[in-house]
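Appendix B, Record 12. Input sequence as logged:
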Amino acid sequence: MDSVNKGTGWHELPRLVSTYMMWIAVPLVLVGIVAVELGFSSWLPNDGALHLGLLVTLLFAVFQVMWAQHAEVSTKLDGTRDELRALRSSVRDDTALMKMEVAVLELETALSGVRPGEEIVIEHIGLDMTYAWHGVEGLIRRFRYSTRLDYRVLVLSDRAADAAAYHPDIRKWMSDGRSQIEFISRKKAELEATVNEAGGKLNLDVRDYSDLPVVHGIRVRRPFDVAYVAICRYGETGDYDWAGNSYHRLRSAAATPAQADLISLFERSFEHYWELGSPRNG
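Logged structural output:
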């Protein structure tokens, strides 16, 4: 099968025959033309045969050009088909888990199609946000041309909870989250100025929550609906893991019942914590 795909199969036979005929016909016609010019036309067949040879050579030449164009178009079509196949695979394979970095890159790629002037609404359930904030800030700066960018983010904190009751990993997240909220609050004015200078408007709303973190991730609500969600769990060594390599891509429009349940889990969690959380916007 590889030999056929590389151009040496039976479908290449017409081109090969044409090429060999060109190799034979062209020299013969050239010899005939030179013989006529030198006065040796009596050695040649009649003029009709010479004209026929010229016509055949011309037809072979046209066939070669058309075949070359056909091959070029076929190559481009094959490349397009491969790209479409890869795209369909990526779009349909919503059961595959992904790393956080891949999820952020995919989300930015999807948002790159948003036209200036469209509203972007994002809901984010974070943990301590010390690592994820870099991605959030980069996303805000990249899409600062949006007329309105509403970014609502929840940050885990120990402000309203007795942290001693939680796993040591969670206590660390809560402590770091409280500090990160203060940092984000200081960055808010700078980011708002950056977006305003670009002609957009930023509404960065930060609230804290104090609870055992289970579901976390990011969801775009407008101009389309897609979420990247991970589930915290206890690890084999007894640690409490944030599952940074196990993000689920969830599309509301094409969700299976299991995926729809995860979307509901994220949505209800966000609404619950948002209602209880205190605005922490500086």
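The CA atoms of residues 149 and 274 lie 18 Å apart.
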